[in-house]
From TrEMBL:
Protein name: Uncharacterized protein
PANTHER family registered for this protein in UniProt: ANK_REP_REGION DOMAIN-CONTAINING PROTEIN-RELATED, RETROTRANSPOSON GAG DOMAIN-CONTAINING PROTEIN
Length: 255
């Protein structure tokens, strides 16, 4: 006989945190609880029922006490059914299908992630052939135009083959972008001079690297009063104190 395994406690179930996802969260929590019982080799029905209420937490215990016909202390099955009826009211099938049809692949979502999301949504839609519905949704709502065209050309493509083709396209697209990025970087590097012997070209290259205000400072300017290069040496204008030979006014030369 296999020995029992001591397992850490499960997180409690919070029925009040998000009512819109209440049914889904309870279904997921209950699945984990059944795995917990199986892993711990807990088969006694009285113990299973007690653990169900204990692990679920005080909020669930309070709700359970308000339910009618919950069975005896050793009736684990009825306890699960009553809580499930409370947390998973009768669903609107048409609405569930509508939510499934609205699910479109996002640009930051891989095809496998999109497929997993659709698979999860399909569980509440009661499709006769879930694979067919998921395949149709991927073809209509995936982000890859190439994959869509491939699927439309090969109408007999199965869901598994479609996913394999999509993964291949994603990998090739990623690799192509990596190569193109490297080529772009190489082209940019080729445009930059590395060994230039012509001193004029060196100066022009250095000037291109300077900010506009720095380049403006290298341009020679002329003094308005004397017509010579400005600024003057020793900050002294030769025209200062001189009479113009044309207009006979002071402090500038004739132009």
């Amino acid at each position: 006989m296999a020995a029992r395994v001591d397992l850490p406690s499960m997180p409690q179930f919070d029925p009040h945190v998000d009512y819109s996802s209440l049914a889904t969260r309870w279904e997921q929590w209950l699945k984990r609880f059944h795995l917990y019982l199986r892993a711990g080799k807990i088969t006694d029905k009285t113990q299973q029922r007690a653990l169900l209420l204990y692990m679920a937490g005080p909020q669930v215990q309070t709700i359970f006490e308000t339910l009618a016909n919950t069975g005896d202390d050793d009736d684990f099955k009825t306890a699960v059914e009553k809580l499930t009826e409370y947390f998973m009211p009768k669903k609107n099938l048409e609405y569930e299908i509508y939510i499934f049809r609205q699910a479109r692949q996002t640009t930051d979502e891989t095809l496998d992630q999109y497929h997993t999301r659709l698979r999860k949504l399909a569980t509440t839609c009661e499709f006769t052939d879930a694979d067919r519905e998921i395949k149709t949704q991927i073809i209509q709502s995936c982000v890859s135009t190439r994959l869509r065209r491939k699927a439309l050309r090969a109408s007999t493509l199965t869901l598994s083959a479609l996913l394999a083709e999509g993964r291949s396209l994603e990998v090739s697209e990623k690799q192509a972008k990596g190569i193109e990025k490297s080529l772009t970087a190489i082209k940019i590097d080729e445009k930059l001079p590395t060994e230039i012997d012509d001193s004029v070209n060196v100066i022009q290259h250095q000037q291109r690297q300077q900010p506009p205000y720095a380049r403006r400072e290298t341009v020679k300017r002329k003094c308005y009063y004397c017509g010579l290069d400005y600024p003057h040496k020793n900050n002294s204008c030769p025209a200062y104190g001189k009479e113009c030979s044309f207009c006979h006014k002071m402090n500038h030369f004739a132009k």
